[in-house]
Every structure is written in C-alpha cells, then in structure tokens.
Amino acid sequence: MKLAPGQVADRLSQVTGWELSQGAITAVFQFKDFAEAMQFVNRAADVAEALDHHPDMLIRYNSVQLTVFTHSEGGLTEKDFELAARVNQLR
Amino acid sequence: MKLAPGQVADRLSQVTGWELSQGAITAVFQFKDFAEAMQFVNRAADVAEALDHHPDMLIRYNSVQLTVFTHSEGGLTEKDFELAARVNQLR
Known about the structure:
Two copies of one chain form a homodimer.
Chain A: H1 5-12, E1 19-21, E2 24-30, H2 34-51, E3 56-60, E4 63-68, H3 78-88
Antiparallel strand pairs in A: 1-2, 2-4, 3-4
Helix pairs in contact in A: 2-3
C-alpha cells in the first residue's frame, strides 16, 4: 500500500543517506574501488531477490547509486524502506 | 588517443546495438530476469577489470545499460570500442 507523505517522511528519517528524488528514494554508496563496489552490488542483489523487490542500480567505477520505487503501487511503500534499511546494513 | 568523428562512425558500425549519446557510446542489454541480468553485469565487470576500463552500468530489473567514455581523454578512444566489442561477445 502506498504510503502517505507523512509516513514517507517518517520512514525516510530512519534510513541514513537516503533522500527523495522524483517520487522515489535514492542513495549513493562510495567504495575504495570498482571491485569493492561490485561486491556491494552483488550483496544488494541478494537482498533484492530475497525481498522480491529490485532497486535500479547505477555503478560508476567506485560508486553505486540505488533508486527504489514500487511500480505496482505508483509510489513508495513499506517494502521500499525495508529494502533501504537492509541495504544500509551491508555497509 | 581521442578518435576523430569519422573514426568513431567507423568503429560504431562494427559494434551491434551501440549508439552515440552525449559524446559517449551506450547499449541496452535485455535478459529474462534480474538474476540473468546480474550474471551479465558480473561478466561485464570482469571484462572491465581485464581492460582496466570501466563502463557505467545501470541495472533495471532485467535490463542493463552500459555507457562508455574515456574520461582521461575527454572523448571516445579505441579502448571504448574494444570494451563494447568484448561485452557484445558475452551475449
């Protein structure tokens, strides 16, 4: 179920490093090098498969930008923030 | 060394599926699902490390967009097209 704006603000305050962007939530993760960035991407992919919820992932050498949105609901849901929280734990 | 426009056109004609976009070259690869897309991303990452030349990689569920550019030369070089050709062989 799509979250109301107040709920989004509440959930967002609980996931460090994530911000709203064009209705989705997004975060950039920085690493030492490309190999370390790829390790993170693979761990994030495992989380995505486990939750059956898949962020867009943009790899730029040693940085990885994740963007999450619930397409089926046309907005942000608990699942988006669950994914954000689980991915934050990978750092 | 940065390629001249005529050389870029020539090299581009030799890498199926790649096109010019804002001075870089880019291609989108489609897969059955996210797991297959991730397998491709990991193989493309191995090519990138082997060539020491790293494309931007955008994963969107079952699609992967690669964008290549030689930042140190401020343009396209033989290495960009070598990476494109090697990645095309992964399909």
